[in-house]
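Problem 12. The chain below contains 65 residues. Write out its predicted structure in token notation.
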Amino acid sequence: MILGMGIPELAVILLIVLVIFGPKNLPKLGSALGKTVKSVREGMEEGSGDSEPSPASTTEDDLAQ
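Solution.
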């Protein structure tokens, strides 16, 4: 189950997408969706590294306290 949906629900969604966009545009749509997901994942990875201070950023003043 994906997001609480079973096979019948996913099949109906796929059929609706096929009717709306047509079979010729589905590869373009899938490619755009894949690139978007990849960009979001890369952005989340870059953002998660910013919250932790790096060892190089500590100064002697920080160590003295």
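Discussion. Residues 26-50 form the longest helix (25 residues). Students who got a different answer should revisit the alignment rule from Section 12.3.
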